[in-house]
Write a structure and sequence with these properties.
501 residues; five-stranded antiparallel sheet; 13 helices
Length: 501
């Protein structure tokens, strides 16, 4: 089997991923795909098809839905639990949270990019590696970092039974490598990064192989010299504390789980209706082009006569019974297209997000709105929980790289945890709920930290304010109120004393 072989699930989903990418990118990408999304009409020439496609407009409901869902998830900042401040592992994780990929990307931005990828194509991956310098003696930064991979870059994978459990034994990643060139041009070639577990002396060890395509001059120019040829340019065994790794440090991200299996695109149905809307719009605009403007007609005029239309021009003929008029479209054909497009827009609102639906001019109770949106919220909540779990796995890998723990799986949620927002309601805490929470705290049923957490989720506390900061502000307020009460009591006593005198 050649090194560039792809997984069967990759082949089955590649077209759907491409379709999702094009639709999310917008009108230019959809139109550039030509007949893939907008077939030619019968007997249409190339020029006629180009005009037919140019007249159409693409209403990108899919991108609006993705942006809306991402906005709902990140309406509140994710909850991140890291070790207490200090040196060692805690310090390394704090540095990692500020720059996860050695390119200045924060953990917040990284997680937002992962959510966007999972919403768009239903899949992404993260490689957790160690920056330990080069063979020339440069020690580098000596820290863990991540590399994010799109669904289309994860071309092959294998899962096998190792030591009584299912373990990923192969992950093949497609990359673009840069080669030496002049000062003004960067030459790019295809590269495969193969992560695999190999048996060595009865134990499984993690190895990285880099294969580079040698028959293509450049990815950018697409210049080839025959059949695909790949050559192994590097092979290394990463070490941690002087020992090889027993697992592949790669995390899969999906809308329902973090397993290697490919999951269904969350917005597959929205994408299908969105493209149907585009085709209907093309036919509608095509019909408007030929029927919207009235067409003048005459009978009984000289064929050689030059007849101009305008308020300062009169048509004169000596032929008895000559007539003139305008042809206008009066049928219902275009109205049918309008109704069909309206139906697609309503269907996209139901399938994707209620924010795309026109607001009704009738009152709706909070319970009715909650029931109406429960389906969308459940899908979005499942995705948020799944990505929370997979990003937490990334943090556990980073913790493991910087610690002496035996396995990333032994690192509990008490040490590192990442949680995305799963409350998508814009409604905050009511006065009755606030009173009940404070009463529960005063009665000792909940801790002060739990009360503050409930306040934060209910948007009572501003984002970014810690429990310690809120406690200090509360104590300061109590002290100021006590001081003011003492001063007020003092004034009353002074006034009473003067009155007696």
């Amino acid at each position: 089997m050649p090194v560039h072989s792809t997984h069967a699930d990759f082949d089955a989903n590649a077209a759907a991923w491409l379709r999702a990418r094009d639709v999310f990118a917008g009108e230019d990408a959809v139109k550039a795909a030509g007949e893939r999304y907008l077939p030619k009409l019968d007997s249409q020439t190339t020029d006629e098809y180009s005009a037919y496609k140019a007249r159409a407009s693409f209403f990108n409901a899919t991108a609006r839905t993705v942006d809306g869902f991402v906005g709902l998830i990140f309406r509140r900042e994710p909850s991140v639990k890291l070790p207490e401040r200090g040196a060692g592992v805690a310090g390394a994780l704090r540095v990692f949270a500020e720059d996860v990929d050695l390119l200045g990307t924060s953990l917040y931005t990284f997680s937002k990019n992962i959510v966007t990828e999972v919403l768009t194509v239903g899949r992404a991956g993260t490689l957790v590696d160690w920056e330990g310098g080069s063979a020339t003696g440069d020690r580098g930064e000596q820290r863990a970092y991540v590399v994010r991979y799109a669904a289309e870059q994860i071309v092959n994978w294998r899962v096998a039974r190792v030591n009584g459990r299912n373990v990923v034994t192969l992950v093949m990643l497609q990359e673009v490598a840069t080669t030496d060139s002049d000062d003004f041009e960067v030459e790019e070639v295809e590269q495969l990064r193969v992560l695999r577990l190999v048996p060595v002396n009865g134990e499984w060890q993690y190895r990285v192989d880099l294969w580079r395509r040698s028959d293509a001059k450049s990815v950018r120019t697409g210049t080839k010299r025959g059949k695909a040829k790949w050559e192994l340019v590097e092979s290394r065994t990463p070490l941690r504390l002087g020992k090889p790794l027993s697992l592949i440090p790669f995390v899969f991200h999906g809308p329902r789980h973090s397993l290697p299996e490919v999951d269904k695109l969350p917005l597959a149905d929205v994408i299908a209706v969105n493209l149907d809307h585009y085709r209907l719009n093309a036919d509608y605009k095509h019909g408007l082009h030929f029927t919207a403007l009235p067409t003048a007609w005459v009978s009984g005029f000289d064929k050689a006569a030059n007849l101009r239309i305008g308020s300062s021009t009169a048509w004169v003929t000596e032929t008895a019974g000559a007539t003139a008029g305008f042809l206008e479209f009066t049928g219902q054909g275009l109205t049918t297209f309008e109704r069909a497009m309206d139906r697609d827009e309503r269907l996209m609102a139901i399938l994707g997000s209620r924010m795309l639906e026109e607001h009704k001019r009738v009152g709706e109770t909070a319970e009715a709105i909650e029931l109406r949106q429960s389906g969308e919220n459940s899908v979005l909540m499942t995705l948020a929980l799944s990505v929370s779990d997979s990003v937490s796995q990334v943090l556990r890998w980073v913790y493991w790289w910087n610690s002496t723990e035996e396995s990333p799986e032994t690192i509990s949620e008490e040490l590192v945890l990442f949680q995305l927002n799963t409350d998508f309601s814009a409604k905050g805490l009511g006065s009755d709920e606030l009173t009940a929470i404070v009463a529960a705290w005063q009665a000792g049923a909940i801790s002060r930290e739990t009360m503050f957490d409930l306040f934060r989720r209910g948007e009572v506390l501003p984002p970014g304010r810690t429990d310690e900061e809120e406690a200090r502000l509360t104590e300061k307020q109590k002290a100021e109120m006590g001081k003011a009460e003492i001063e007020s009591q003092s004034r009353l006593t002074s006034a009473a004393t003067k009155g007696e005198a």
